[in-house]
UniProtKB/TrEMBL annotation:
Pfam family, one: Peripla_BP_4
Signal peptide annotation: 1-23
Cellular localization per UniProt: Cell envelope
Ranges for domain Periplasmic binding protein: 40-300
Organism in which the protein naturally occurs: Pseudonocardia humida
Keywords: Signal
Similarity section: Belongs to the bacterial solute-binding protein 2 family.
Descriptive protein name: ABC transporter substrate-binding protein
Length: 326
């Protein structure tokens, strides 16, 4: 029978304690007998190149760490994620990690995990809850900082604008932490410039097809668009298809700001079709596994671990593209 690492760790600690009291347990658990850690991981989906890279990072890091990964793709559906988490609890995994597709609605299932004694790690996206004890740590980007970087760049670029600058925004998945916070911080960053006006904002659900469809509608409905702010490269690239189909020049007729920094986004930046990209780093697999090992071993970890990220203009994109892993 598999001895879950957490029981093996506890048994090992108990054996050590008893030995210290002179009791000869004769059955000290050798930690090397313990099974590898089993992690249940519920992924949002495969909606973008960022997500594909994030999944690959988690899977490769689990293999490298000798962690048994039970992986579930929710296809951007919260009910499927809740179902997956319940299956991990039933399986008796040692730790659960997941990237919540939206911010709310997680308390009941996370309370079930807590009752089962299974620690939970949030990766990539945060949740909104009145009970932060439902998870041990949140490893992911600072989306407010990302939105602030995007807005500050645009504000600096149009600091002396004497005419209104019409901005359209293609948001990520409705209700998701990145969409909420990238929208909030961007609007805040441009709020002191009276010429910068967001004239339309709609969700493209972080997909290329969604970005193209939303941009087609914007182009049909709005006579003058000066800037597009896309919450990820995939939607920005879809929007570029629509802009070109409308006979306009992306990056010149319509300036484009995007988030992520996937290969194709950097290439579009180099080609002058995107003007600025705020990086959002998907390669958090190694950090996730390090956190999981510590938590299962009963060690304390920081409740918030922010991933390191940068920004790209054309020269930085040229330098980064050759070694870009995603
Ligand atoms: C951000 C992540 C977002 C990416 C998108 O951490 O949740 O979801 O920006 C992805 O590309 O779909």
């Amino acid at each position: 029978m598999r001895v879950p690492r957490r029981f093996a760790a506890a048994a090992g600690l108990l054996a050590l304690a008893l030995a210290g009291c002179g009791a000869d347990t004769g059955t000290a658990v050798d930690a090397s007998d313990a099974s590898p850690i089993t992690m249940g991981f519920s992924q949002v989906g495969a909606e973008s190149e960022w997500r594909v890279a994030n999944t690959r990072s988690v899977q490769e890091a689990a293999a490298a760490a000798g962690i048994e990964l039970v992986f579930s793709d929710a296809q951007q559906d919260q009910d499927r994620q809740i179902e997956a988490i319940r299956s991990f609890i039933a399986k008796g995994v040692d730790v659960i990690a997941f990237s919540p597709v939206v911010e709310t609605g997680w308390d009941p299932v996370l309370r079930e995990a807590r009752r089962a004694g299974i620690p939970v790690i949030l990766t990539d996206r945060a949740i909104r809850t009145a009970d932060p004890g439902l998870y041990r740590t949140f490893l992911g980007s600072d989306f407010l900082e990302e939105g602030n970087k995007a807005g500050t760049w645009l504000d600096d670029r149009h600091i002396r604008a004497e005419e209104p600058v019409s901005i359209v925004e293609i948001q990520g998945t409705v209700g998701s932490a990145p969409a909420i916070e990238r929208q909030l911080a961007f609007a805040e960053a441009i709020s002191s410039n009276p010429q910068l006006k967001i004239v339309a904002s709609t969700s493209g659900d972080f997909t290329r097809a969604g970005g193209r469809a939303v941009m087609e509608d914007f182009l049909a409905d709005l006579p003058d668009i000066d800037v597009l702010y896309a919450h990820n490269d995939d939607m920005g690239l879809g929007a570029i298809e629509a802009i070109e189909a409308a006979g306009k020049v992306p990056g010149r007729d319509i300036e484009i700001i995007s988030v992520d920094g996937v290969r194709e986004g950097l290439q579009a930046l180099i080609d002058g079709k995107i003007n600025y990209i705020v990086e959002c780093n998907p390669l958090i697999g190694e950090q996730l596994m390090e956190l999981a090992v510590k938590i299962v071993a009963g060690e304390q970890v920081l409740s918030r671990v922010v991933t390191k990220e940068t920004v790209f203009e054309r020269s930085a994109a040229l330098a980064a593209l050759p070694d870009r892993r995603y």
